[in-house]
Amino acid sequence: MTSAPSNLSPQQQALLDQWLPSATVEKNYSWGLVATTVLEIAHAGSRFIVKAGGADDHHIQRELHAHLNWLDSWTSRGRAPTLVHGSADAKLLLTRYLPGELALGSEHAEEPSTYRQAGELLALLHAQTVVTDDDYERRENEKSLAWLSRPHRIAATTVERLQAEIAAWPTPPATLVPTHGDWQPRNWLVHDDVVSVIDFGRAAMRPPFTDFARLAVQDFRRDSKLERAFLDGYGTDPRDTAAWYRNRVREAIGTAAWAYRVGDEPFEAQGHRMIAEALSSRPQ
Q1: Does domain 102-280 have CATH number 3.40.50.2000?
Q2: Residue 6, Cβ neighbours under 10 Å: how many?
Q3: What is the pLDDT of residue 180?
Q4: Each residue of 76-114: pLDDT tens digit?
Q5: Residue-range domain boundaries for the chain
Q6: What single DSSP character describes residue 35?
Q7: CB atoms within 10 A of CB 184
Q8: 110: number of CA atoms within 13 Å, CB side?
Q9: Cβ neighbourhood burial of 17 (10 Å; 0-12, 13-18, 19+)
Q10: Contact 42/24 with Cβ under 8 angstroms?
Q11: Is residue 241 scored above 90 in pLDDT?
């Protein structure tokens, strides 16, 4: 492959040369905050997207699992990129290019019709399979406590309150479905007013309401019409009061601590706001 970035490993470069000999790099969409390379490449008149993980990456394996198990309801409608090749060992994924512009930062991010379609697409994903997990809540609590034990800028008094709350939470069985894990306009493409979905690096089995978390603290907070349109598309509202509160707190902790770790100060500030707002809405 010509003009490939130097941060591709020799194994990744060799696989790409095997899959698409003499392909050329057209654009680099890499985010920069994490060690994931995202490229648009051309080969024999067709366009593809390459995602290559760094040495410590665990997102490519999740993304490959999602493509192999959960995305047919979208790809069959042309609403998600189709997998061409993948290697969990090489942390490398190749999909067909999906046309469109990101909803984030465009006029589509303010259109209720975008959110209605996103709700409909999410309902298709969540409806595929349902399992009960007796240990999910305990595992998630442990993850949040682990974030609090690492470097961050959450106030010490707030940390003490969060630790005490989490220690007192019940751990009931949880109903899990396939989830995207980062459901928000930055992962929605719009082409001819039709919404499609990208980026499955956080896909996993979780409670359905977890896919409402990013929207609730950003887009729904900004405009209630967007929330109404999304719920109209999705068909119901799965946000049970107690479980939703626990998830809000966990999301807030993870946002503030992760953003601090990668040096994303605006996102870190959002995490601190999320913590304050979640704690102020604690169910009685």
Answers
A1: no
A2: 5
A3: 98
A4: 999 999 999 999 999 999 999 999 999 999 999 999 999
A5: 10-97, 102-280
A6: S
A7: 18
A8: 3
A9: middle
A10: yes
A11: no
Q: What share of the chain is helix, strand, coil (3-state, %, to 5)?
A: 50, 20, 35
Cα atoms found within 13 Å of the Cα of residue 59, Cβ hemisphere only:
17
Q: What's the pTM value of the predicted model, to 2 decimals?
A: 0.93
For the domain with range 10-97, which CATH number is right: 3.30.200, 3.40.50, 3.30.450, 3.40.1350?
3.30.200
Nearest by Cα to 226 from 114, 102, 104: 114
pLDDT of residue 34: 61
pLDDT in tens, 145-172: 999 999 999 999 999 999 999 999 999 9
The b-or-e profile of 157-171 (16+ CB within 10 A means b, else e) is ebeeebeebbeebee
State the Cα–Cα distance between residues 69 and 191, nearest whole angstrom: 25
